Amino acid sequence: MMELRYGQIHIGTITEEFLSDGTWFGRFQEAVALDPSPLHKRLHEYIAFSVEWHERLRSGLPADATEFDEFGEIISSGDWQAIGLGGSVARLPEAPVFIQEEVTWTTIPMAP
With contact defined as beta carbons under 8 Å apart, do 23 and 106 qualify? Predict the structure, then answer.
């Protein structure tokens, strides 16, 4: 199990995670914020958009990758982190991608 964070904001929990060819995959459960900040609301909008965009793509409906540009500040912020149970922190170079109840992401390689 892992925790997905954006800076100090707990975004959700990742389970059944595995690594394949340099890309991580897992099941995602978004956290519910009792009093969400504007940033937290924006992060939720990104997650909902990603799920909806991939659903359109799967269904053969128009889904242009440039639609993600609206979330450019979130996608390329460098603030995304995946935190393991033992406390290990993996930094994500870009936002994870959300597809239905799943999430996929890459991490920044650790320096030797």
Answer: yes
Rounded Cα–Cα distance for residues 98 and 90 (Å): 18
Per-residue pLDDT of 57-101, as tens digits, reads 999 999 999 999 999 999 999 999 999 989 999 999 999 999 999
Q: What is the pLDDT of residue 110?
A: 59
CA–CA dist 50, 94 (Å, integer): 13
Cα–Cα distances in angstroms (integers) from residue 8 to residues 47, 81, 82, 83, 86, in the given order = 17, 9, 12, 12, 17
Domain boundaries, the chain: 2-105
Long-range CB pairs of 59-63, under 8 A, 24+ apart, other chains included = none
pLDDT score at 108: 84
Q: Specify whether the CB–CB gap between 12 and 28 falls below 8 A.
A: yes
Nearest to 38 by CA among 30, 46, 28: 46
The 10 Å Cβ neighbour count of residue 13 is 15
How far apart are the C-alpha atoms of 103 and 1, rounded to whole Å? 13
